[in-house]
Automatic annotation (TrEMBL):
It comes from Stylophora pistillata. GO terms for cellular component: cytosol; neuron projection; nucleus; synapse. Coiled coil: none annotated. Residues 20-55, 110-145, 154-189, 198-233 form the EF-hand domain. The gene is CALB2. This is Calretinin. Keywords: Calcium. GO terms for molecular function: calcium ion binding. InterPro entries: Calbindin_Ca-bind, EF-hand-dom_pair, EF_Hand_1_Ca_BS, EF_hand_dom. PANTHER family: CALBINDIN, CALBINDIN-32. The keyword Calcium applies. The lineage of its organism: Eukaryota, Metazoa, Cnidaria, Anthozoa, Hexacorallia. The keyword Phosphoprotein does not apply.
Length: 275
């Protein structure tokens, strides 16, 4: 989502969620923007206000209550005073998450670990692909971070353009390698090392690279980035297939995660790389 200003959300939760992701927010907007003109207005706005009233636990509002709520909403959130709500105005009414991409400087190349943090955030169903609605959520944040104006048609146009450019097998979704073409991601760090001639100093360099938070373990996105880079370097499996990464991770952890804590310590990684 776009970065929030100082205005607090009108409700603390909506449809059972205390924090709405970009993808879910777009679904909500499209649900109430029935004529798909990029605004929630007239009868659409009344329908939205009824839904808001239910979140406020006031039951089914009558026409007077809807009129009072409409006045309150428009005074507080209708920034351009046009009597309707656009995408960015609605984002201030609902408890939307902060723009996840704002954590990463757009001028910087992402580390592979940070790339996996982005991937896991937008791959909401953990399918191993960024599907069309998830891609729209990602693009909402991407455009918002760049300070560009947001409207549903613009996001849909960008989504189609991204799929045309980067979805090479035309399955309507993005794989890990396809998504990495959209974001500026660093080259595979392991390509400069030869496993057969690896020195202790080189091993320590690899450890420092993937233990990005410096907590003494390689876990979560750090582990996924390391294993993905190993598969990419060896070029022996189809890294487009998310099952291959899961299978490889399971095999590695079964073999080298000696204390079964779901992460790799330094000695465990050394056994893996020098095995």
């Amino acid at each position: 989502m776009a970065d929030k200003g100082s205005v607090a959300p009108f409700v603390k939760s909506f449809q059972g969620k205390a924090e709405i992701t970009s993808a879910d927010f777009l679904k909500i907007f499209k649900k109430f923007d029935k004529d798909e003109n990029g605004f929630i207005e007239a009868g659409e706005l009344d329908d939205f206000l009824i839904a808001l009233a239910k979140e406020k636990k006031v039951g089914e509002p009558d026409s007077k209550q809807i009129a009072e709520m409409k006045e309150e909403i428009l005074q507080g959130y209708d920034d351009n005073f046009d009597g309707k709500l656009d995408l960015e105005e609605l984002a201030n009414i609902l408890p939307t998450e902060e723009n996840f991409l704002a954590k990463f400087q757009h001028s910087n190349i992402l580390t592979n670990v940070d790339f996996f943090k982005v991937w896991n955030h937008y791959d909401q169903d953990h399918s191993g692909f960024i599907e069309s609605d998830e891609l729209e959520g990602f693009l909402t944040d991407l455009l918002g971070r760049e300070g560009q104006s947001l409207n549903p048609q613009r996001i849909t146009d960008y989504q189609k353009a991204m799929l045309d450019l980067f979805d090479k097998n035309k399955d309507g979704k993005l794989s890990l390698p396809e998504m990495s073409k959209i974001l500026p991601v660093e080259d595979n760090f392991l390509l400069k090392f030869d496993r057969d001639d690896m020195t202790e100093a080189q091993f320590n360099e690899i450890w420092s690279k993937y233990d990005q938070d410096g907590n003494g373990f390689i876990a979560d996105e750090e582990l996924e980035a390391l294993l993905y880079d190993i598969l990419d370097k060896n070029n022996k499996v189809d890294i487009e297939n998310p099952c291959e990464l899961k299978k490889f991770k399971s095999c590695i952890m079964d073999s080298f995660d000696q204390n079964k804590d779901g992460k790799l310590g330094k000695d465990e990684l050394k056994m893996m790389l020098f095995a």
